[in-house]
Amino acid sequence: MKSTKLIKSFFLTTWPIYSLSLFLHFVSNWINVNFPKVLGRFTDQLQLGSLTHDKVVSFSLLLLAIGIGHVLFNGGAMYLVMYVGRKFEFHVRGQLFHHFTQMSERFYSSNGVGRLLSYFMNDVTAVRESISMGFNATANATMLLAAAVAMMITSGIPLYLIGASVFPLLLIPFIVVYLGPIIRKRSLAVQESLGRMTELAEEQFGGVRVTKKFAAEDVMEQRFNASVDEIRRNQLLLVKVSSFFQALIPYLGTIALITALAFGGYLAIHGRITLGNFVALTLYVRLLMNPLQQIGNVVNSIQRSRASLERLNGLLTQRSEIIESDYAREVNLSTAVLRIRNLTFAYNPTSQPVLQNVQLTLKPGSTLGIIGRTGSGKTTLMKLLLRMYDPPESSILFGNTDIRDMTLESLRSQIAYVPQDGFLFSTTIRENIAFHNRSAKLCTVKTAAKQAQIYDNIVDLPSRFDTRLGERGLTLSGGQRQRTSLARGLIKNAPLLILDDSVSAVDTVTEKEIIRTIRKERAGKTTIIIAHRISAIKHADVILVLDEGAIVQKGTHEELLRAPGLYAELHAIQEEGQQHATGTGYS
Amino acid sequence: MRPAQAIHNWQMDQKADPNMPEQKPQYVSAFRALSRYVRPHIVSFSLVFLFTIIAILSDLLQPYLMKIAIDDNLLAGRNDYQGLLLICAAYFALSASSFLFTYLQNNLLQRIGQSIVGLIRKQLFSHILRLSMRYFDRMSSGSLITHISSDTEALNQFFNQVLLSLFRDGLTLILIIAMMFHLDSQLALYCLVLLPVISLIAIGFRSFMRTTYQLARTRLSRMVAFVAENLSGMNLVQAFHQQREQEKQFNERNGLYFQANVREIRTNILFGRTFDVLSNLSIAFVTWVGGNAVLGDHLAFGVLYAFITYIRQFFQPINTITQQWNTLQSATVAISRIWTVFESEPDVKDPKKAAEDWNEQDVRGRIEFDHISFAYEPDVPIIRNLQLTIAPGEMIGVVGTTGAGKSSLISLLCRFYDVQEGAIRIDGFDVRHIPQASLHRMVGLVQQDPYLYSGSIIDNVRLFDESISREEVIAACEFVGASTVIQKLIGGYDTKLSERGSGLSSGERQLISFARIIVFKPKVLILDEASANLDSQTEQLIQSALHAVSRNRTTIVIAHRLSTIQQADRILVMSKGQIVEEGTHSQLVEAGGHYQELYENSK
């Protein structure tokens, strides 16, 4: 079966440790079961009157030795297995992260971050728990059961007495297996209703102005109260099963004890077993209660972890659709002409094409502007240029090489991509800007920051370029994030720069300044600028107007203005809309 | 730690306010506050107490019954099997009642706890919702959510775990000691010496364990945060070809977490085993002391057997109680935090007695700002001595740089804050004398970022108010021109929306908030940069919606783009909290002042 792949390779390397641990469990329990026996012998000697003060001392010491021996071996056995369990977790997480870095955007768009994170955290942990805690509990309980039964038999307790006393205990694992999933399901329901309440509170506090403004406090309160009542209901449902469970296990224990007391007592009275054996028997029954309960837990956790393991293996066997071909080669983008031929592309074979029959030739060193409404396919085109998705064969070529025959490293290290959302990592500003090469000198980072008009903002921050962002650190405004992200693209000084609506949150004055810098710095290098505003692209050598995936107009700013069409229309609307009342809108 | 918990913590950390000070638990005041909620349940609590005693009795009497069986029946040589059966029957009855009462006690305690926690949750939410905007400015919404969900959950754990354990384990411990004294006071005294030793070791270990646990927790959340971030930014990592570098950084974090885990395992095992060794040591000790006593006929063997069993039972409750220490601490902190929220009073209060002749229906919408001044902080005046009168039905445009006081003016009119000097009047009534709910119904506000609730489009327009009919909502949507967009959606008017990822563009969301205005029919309408951030086509749609909405209403439009307000009856230019220019578009352009400059600049 495929799902055992991860586990198999793990056990192949760790089996000596597991065997050692099993051995230690055996020794520890073998020592442990001597405890009731010794106490039984103590009783017998006492009854026979052969006990002396010296013997009392040696019995005490013997009990102490048993206790300590059991504890030491048991501790060792548990440590070994828990240690390898964590090692397993460590390796699998490393493997998963590596796998994540290989997967393409299609993978990410069909799996949300939350879901992947749950693979990464919950599933890995579930498997780890069953191969470490599960192993420990099973090994411990079976060894104890075997050793205890063997010990009882050898000390002359009749088999039928053992059977009758231990039988109620053997029911425990089955009850755990039966009730465990129910408890789990109900406790998940509690968690979910808690989550819903949190979401509702989040929503209410986020939109408190609206709530207040429409005087809707009472209605919102009712909604919230309903979610609180649901938590209460789920919690009470949970406690009904869980407390039944909690009461039932000790109850079975006492039933076993009562059997031992009645049946064993009868035999002891009639001299069929010694008083010592009777005492030992009651102690064995007590000893077995806990381990048997754990076995039930193990069964449940193994069931859960089997599903987890399958999910993990399934995830790891998924292959990225973006694969370097065997004869992939490097192409120098600073001299290669970019050619797009009859490019039609759909995200799914069944869905509407996002790009239709796109044709373009771009000489190295020129600037291309792209404009169009949201959803017209601009960003998709850029993703294809970066090979985030695979374009159809021979539809995008650099020089004479199909983009699919280039090495990914050669392609991506020569393109600087500045996305619209200005995504930054929770690290220092310096590391964010120098993302393509973390060891870049501070002076180059500073230059890039100046070019992106973010330098002045950065030097105002408490630790300047070493200021940490996000996650309990500082947060930047939308415009500042975009400009930092722009600096991250500019510092790369790549043969091809793609600005994907990268200055949308920047005010007009700063935008003008940025465009001026880009024109200067990018002289002789290829630049593609996507924008909503005409002002950002009017200087381009060629401008494409995209509409519903097709190029509807192509030309320079002046040419397009003269021709009737979408471009001139947009220009007319924007000239009016451009009348910004302030120059400080976003900064 | 449960991994789901780790993800939850990470999400909470993201929301939490990093500047929130660490609080020391203040037990006395916290529990005095809580006692108000506990008092109504006092009878139930006594019942829980009673149930608990019955529930643990059977477990505790078992060794005692065994002692009787051994000493009186087996060792006495009377071969009294009937007596033994009687003991068995007693034992069976006890355990059956224990089964029943454990179940009852758990359920009852939960019922009480859940009622209290639920009540506090509801009251807390209702209280926060009624605090004034100044409070929401000061507190991050993350920390408010923490109060509602994490803090009340800590309280819940207090009832679930701490109280349960205090009841059960505390009573068990006390009864065991009582039992031991009953059996043999001298031997019991010897055993009692152990108690402080065990407790000290347990408490010492706990604090040590907590540091290792916290180390693991911090490293885990760091790793989760790193992975979450890289998963969402993977396209960048790949576009910059940084997979190897990110993997290196991940492995560092993963390795650190692994080390912390190994440390945690070691501590846990060490602690557990030390406890076991102690338990064994005391058994050996009891055997030694007791054995000698039995030999000297000071003690019956059955008593010794019972002692050995009791000593074994002794350790469990101590262990459990010390485990509750951390929960108790966090619950106490949570209680004090919740009560701090309860203590904060809204700055803006409803008038004790509303203006007598105030009638919502008759409002015509005449607004007066009578020489008002306002500041968020004492030294930084936002609005200085502003004077403005707006006639009913008039449309006013307001322009000015960021920080000129435009939005503050609006917030004052909505009475999110109170003016420090002067007065704001609607139809001659001071806003401070109008009930807030009434004022809010009368003044409608559309903001730059339309806010959507999770729910259908219908519910979003009528804000879950069932008294507004579906037809009314649909008519409103048609009126503002949102119906074509909505009908294109798969679910139509019943499409579920949410604040994130609703599938609507920001323009479409704005249309929905316009429909709200139509449905709630405010007499005064304020648009606070409602059409910024939109692309050109959508803006035109919004413009026509605006025309539809502003008819027959006093309307105030704050705008970024001059085009939005050119048709206004009057345009105000604000600067530094004052009105510096006033007039129609053409008047202002002719006047050649600040407005004209803005107009030229934007061409």
Describe the 3D structure.
Chain A contains 18 helices and ten strands. With 587 residues, chain A is of the alpha/beta class. In chain A, the strands form two sheets. Chain A has a six-stranded mixed β-sheet, with helices on both faces. In chain A, helix 1 runs antiparallel to helix 3 (53-102) and helix 5 (113-154) runs antiparallel to helix 9. The longest helix of chain A is centred in the middle third of the chain and has 53 residues, at 217-269. The radius of gyration of chain A is 36 Å and the shape is elongated. Mean pLDDT of chain A is 80; it is low at 577-587. With 603 residues, chain B is of the alpha/beta class. Chain B has two domains: 42-342, ABC transporter type 1, transmembrane domain (ABC transporter transmembrane region fold, Up-down Bundle); 360-602, 3-Layer(aba) Sandwich (Rossmann fold). Chain B is 65% helix and 11% strand. Chain B is built from 20 helices and twelve strands. In chain B, the strands form three sheets. Chain B has a six-stranded mixed β-sheet with strand order 6-9-10-3-11-12, sandwiched between helices. In chain B, helix 1 (3-15) crosses helix 7 (185-232). The radius of gyration of chain B is 35 Å and the shape is elongated. The relative contact order of chain B is 0.08. At the A-B interface, helix 2, helix 3, helix 5, helix 6 and helix 7 of A face helix 1, helix 3, helix 4, helix 6 and helix 7 of B.
Q: Reading side by side through the largest sheet of chain A, how are the strands ordered? A: 6-7-8-3-9-10
Number of helices of chain B: 20
| Amino- and carboxy-terminal Cα gap of chain A | 58 Å
Give me the secondary-structure category of chain B. alpha/beta
Number of helices of chain A: 18
How many domains would you count in the coordinates of chain B? 2
